[in-house]
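Exam revision sheet. Question 4 asks you to relate a sequence to its structure. Input first:
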Amino acid sequence: MVTEAEKPVILWFRKDLRLDDNHALNAACRSELQVIPLYIRESSTAGTGPLGAAQAWWLHNSLESLEMKLREFGAKLVLASGDALDVLQDVIRSSGAKMVVWNRRYDPPGIAVDTRIKRALGEQGIAAKSFAGQLMHEPSTLLTGAGTPYRTYTPFWRALEKSGEPDEPIEAPTKINFVAQLPKSESLAAWKLLPSKPNWAKDFADIWTPGEDEAHQRLDDFVEGSLQDYRLNRDLPSRRATSMLSPYLALGVISPARIWHKTRGLAKRVPAEDVVHFRKELAWREFSYHLLYHFPKLPYANWSDRMNGFPWHNDEKQFAAWTRGMTGYPIVDAGMRQLWRHGFMHNRVRMIAASFLIKDLLIDWRRGETWFRDTLIDADPASNAASWQWVAGSGADASPFFRIFNPILQGEKFDPDGSYVREFVPELAALESKYIHRPFEAPEGVLADAGIKLGITYPEPMVDHAIARERALQAYNATRDAA
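Answer key, structure tokens:
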């Protein structure tokens, strides 16, 4: 019979697949109870699993990496599928556990699940404790002077700054007292998170190495290198000038507090403006979760009702061409092909591609948001929705709808020599830089020298941007006048 002192604690891993700066893990260790490490594959609506097929690849490899870290402590990660409460109760019955600990999630479906679990376990006399750590602030506590949620980014950023530095990140434990006999685990391979026949993720490994050690190495490399001049270079997609940490943040392989902490004390060698611009990217993630927490419909409903009557066209053939990177606008096509090839797209190009879908093609932002969820390894329920709504002009602190990116000028400004386009749209690789972002204006001889036949080897523009811009503005003005 299990004595009271021998009853273990269940450490429920969710979007916190790390040992460093893990508050729930820290609490489990401080309890001096034996630990059962558990990951539950919940339904797709519960909030802890992958948002799409690309992130499923990332999850598989991140769980493998976490398993390897746990093996260093002599344990394995217990995998189970099903309703979280049912799984937890099964493990409690089989192990005699008297406590469950986890790190909080902030998406509405996940909050609802956790609330139900805490109540049910409490009624059974099981301690259920949750901890902060996935964000640098709690959305329920960082409020305006009137006690209301922030609705625009700049005041939110100022409040975040004034709230003081985030708590010091907690170092990974040097010892974890795991139970000797872990519950039966499912096989990760049986979950079939990896694509096959065809393996469309085969190129992901060219640039991605999942896992906690890699996340910390990337952070170190970024702070020592690209953080300097970040403000100037972060919008140039051909340069490796960003941290590339968003996929690790998405599944909690690294914590935002650890990243923020790494940017402290750099004044002597990194300009303050570079540090601030990078920190503001972390703050945008915080603001996105702030919005999602207080406005749960953010992923599927206009944050502002001023766009509710907008006359979307939703042309299926045009949408399909956009997803394949066959729009005839090289910077858009390069971004969409980068997305398919690497499960990632440079942030500047995300805005260009989103603006093109919404404003040049008049396709509902929700279609694009859904596509990004399925194809991004860094898919995030808050940042994805907030960013798409920002571009659409329907969100909080949004870019106005009449700010319509010109995909030609954007390409020439941020990819002036066409290096990014040449990498991901190889059929244009031999084209002169003068025409790389406007092949449809190149003389026949220039196209022939580059081996390009418009409409055959590379598509003609699917819309005329100038005409599409006027059409979008007319639709917006009609919607505004009718409101």
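Marking note for examiners. The first helix runs from residue 23 to 30.
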